[in-house]
Amino acid sequence: MPELPEVETVARDLQRWVAGATIRTAIVRWERTIRHPQPPERFVAEIAGATVRRVSRRAKTVLLHLEDGRVMTVALRMTGALIVTDAGTPADPYARVVFELADGRELRYRDVRKFGRIGLWPGGGLRSVGAGRGARSRRVAESGRRYRIGEVFSGHGPEPLQRSFTAERLAERLSRRSAKLKTLLLDQSFIAGVGNIYADEALWRARLHPLRGADTLDARDVRRLHRSIRQVLREGIANRGSSISDYVGVDGQPGRNAERLAVYQRTEQPCFRCGRPIRRIVVGQRSTHFCPRCQPEPVASAAP
Ligand SMILES: [Zn+2]
Predict the structure, then answer these.
(1) Is the N-terminal amide bond of 39 cis, ω within 30° of 0?
(2) Catalytic residue check, 60
(3) Fewer CB atoms near the end CB (10 Å): N or C, the chain?
């Protein structure tokens, strides 16, 4: 599943390839891909003629900012991809939505497993998000009201690569939680954009066991975790993402980060630091990879 580095790579590529392009029309081949507005015919009517001003990312979602202030969101979820093709490129049976651009190219939303969602929203309020309340964003999806783009992301936590995401801020957020580190890193209301791959990588780099309770970290642990989260995400972006399953960039090419991962899907292979075999456990139904030597098991707290 694409995480922050993969989605950031897609957004940066799209910025180069489609900023300034006008969408002539959209063809929706799988109606459930369209989240908002409903019905999909209305989405098609509203997107026709829109010009893309710039492309960015929030959490694991690509944002296409339109000239008139509206924002189109593309959540890639499991297998979604955005691919720009030249005129005359053969049709793709997995393209669920095709945006025909005025210059003859196509922006194709390709999604084998069909979990991804596309929405079109009124602009506004995006700067004020980050309060981190989970339930509200889910309600937005189901309600009929026209939510502004900022409200769509109101349930998401801070962006880990933003300057405002400091070690002090992370420490403050961790200290109020007793959840296990792995569970917390995957919680989008705690921190946005981190998924299974980069959570495991960040914890290995920080030498923290995935089952450590968040409120058991001392100041040095937190600084190491903060640095590690940002490092693994930045390296992922520099390598154009980790292509574990279907992820490809806008050019249709896989990223180069998968072969650089230290623990993720390296079960029984030697740890790059100490040589011990990497172990796999399941935490909250998610595969979790760690080094039993570099990431010591949490000490059981003394009985009261
Ligand atoms: Zn090790």
Answers:
(1) yes
(2) yes
(3) C
139 labelled catalytic: no
Going by pLDDT thresholds of 50, 70 and 90, the confidence category of residue 149 is confident
For the segment 144-168, the average pLDDT, to the nearest whole number, is: 87
Ramachandran region, residue 235 (left: φ > 0; alpha: ψ -120 to 50; beta: rest):
alpha
CA of residue 5 to ligand 1 center, whole Å: 25
Asked whether the predicted pLDDT for residue 131 surpasses 70, the reply is no
pLDDT at 301 over 90: no
pTM for the model = 0.90
Q: How far is the CA of 187 from the centre of ligand 1 (A)?
A: 26
CA of 270 to the centre of ligand 1 (A): 8
pLDDT of residue 82: 96
3-state secondary structure 165-191: CCHHHHHHHHHCCCCEHHHHHHCCCCC
Per the structure block, which two tokens stand in for 283?
A: 């935490």
Options 60, 96, 108, 173, the catalytic residue:
60
Active site residue 114: no
Residue 13 in contact with residue 249, Cβ under 8 Å? yes
